[in-house]
Amino acid sequence: MVDVVRRPKRRLPAWLDRALSTAVVPGDSQDTVRTKRLLTGSLWVSVPAIAISVIQLLVFEAPVAAGLIAVALIVSLGSLLALWVWPGSYPGVMHVVAGGNIMLSASLVVVFGGLLESGVNSVWGLVVLVGAVVVFGDWRANFWLGFYVVVTVLAAVWANQIEALYTLPRAEYVAMFNLMAVVFFVYGVFFYYVRQRTILLDQSDALLRNVLPNEVADRLKTSQETIAESFEAASILFADVAGFTPMSAGMTPRELVSLLDEVFSAFDTMVEDRELEKIKTIGDAYMVASGVPHLRPDHAQALCHLALDMRDHVASHSFQGRQLEFRIGINSGPVVAGIIGRHKFSYDLWGDSVNTASRMESSGSPGKIQITEATLRLVEDEFVCEPRGVVEVKGKGPMPVWHLMGRLDPAR
Length: 412
Known about the structure:
This protein is α+β, with helices and mostly antiparallel strands and 412 residues long. It is 55% helix and 17% strand.
């Protein structure tokens, strides 16, 4: 089994976290929160960037152009205010920002007489398009792409037909500033999203491997075909809390879940240490398999070692202040293993060997490990087994069974 590794999160300063969460409201999904924070952060970053552009244009004695840029500053500040006062306006704010910035870039192209003459100011449209993809991710983003292309082309054509209002001195430096600013912004957005995607994929993969064997998880990610295999030699263990029903009647739901979590977490560690496969829990029942999905010649022996570990651990510990006893049953034989379901799928085992293992548990005695003759033949040279006699097994009739008592080699 693979545990989900939770990396410690680096906390942002409180003021920065509040600034980024301007539009976040209770009930927002994780993806919505991430997108809102990115949009809000972009608006905050744009404020000083636009202010620098206004100052540059005033220095270059281009007041009309500076006034146009100042409109963008007002739009950014107004958008932040709208997100703070009306968080639900978040998709609409993106339309205002997109439309305003695209028209502004086009206006500057006309004012300065061309794309190059304006310091390639139209490159800021890429920021708008990235934002539209992040916020919308559908046909609306495509609309703004088309709008940007049409408006930019028309502005460039118009600029060549009229006399420029201003000549931008050292346009190459302005172009360099615009290009570098946009490059860093776009790079930051993509870096953030790729990093988030990697983190989410790692979490999804870890969760998948927590419910499925590693080999099966790998196949499931690369194939849509039904996963089902036959194993001629495997062993199955069922464990169940004796007297669970009357005990649970006197417990609160929280106490009950805490108790089962404590004991089953201990079992999970033992299963992992023995390199076995936990199949599932059903209520207070715990199911483990050996020899699936990867073959191992010592499948029965490994499962018997686990059963003794479980029995001894339960006998020597109390759980939530209670002493428990488990009935444990083991059987060996052929099984079919695979995945059922399409949405909430699970890896499970089928076959008479599985049913018999379940019957070994249900017909067993508290604190005892009951095994079948099929398992006995595989482990009798390594373990101490005592015959219990013949018991009536539901669906099977009379069956000779044995109790697994201990190891011939206590060191194992």
